[in-house]
Design a protein that fits this description.
Length: 134
Amino acid sequence: MLIKLLGLIAIVICGAGAGLSGAMRLKRRTEELALSVKLISDIGTLIRYSGQETASLFSTLADNPQYEGFVFLNTCRKLVEAGKSPREAFRMAMVEGKDGLCLKKEEIGLLQSFFSGLGRSDASGQESVCELHA
């Protein structure tokens, strides 16, 4: 009887642990998705009101403490400073840092799609790309 009770307690604890782990992953993924939308919106705002070049956006965003969870922004900044194009820098940074994100492959693909279109047109075209993805 005691062994059955211990087994039952172990099953309940394992189930609760798995549930908590899944909930924490989901919460983190939700926060990263919301932050991704905010990132795209902030990029649109920076393009619209500051007139920054695409390459300098990474530096501005990487310095923002709000985006410290997005390590790929620092990697992008370093790659752009080393002479890579913003699109290439983002692609390389995402290959390097995607394991640190809780986002699914499709969501990372949407971010890559956004950054691949960034810097390919004038400011109003880039604002449209931001509005489309945000």
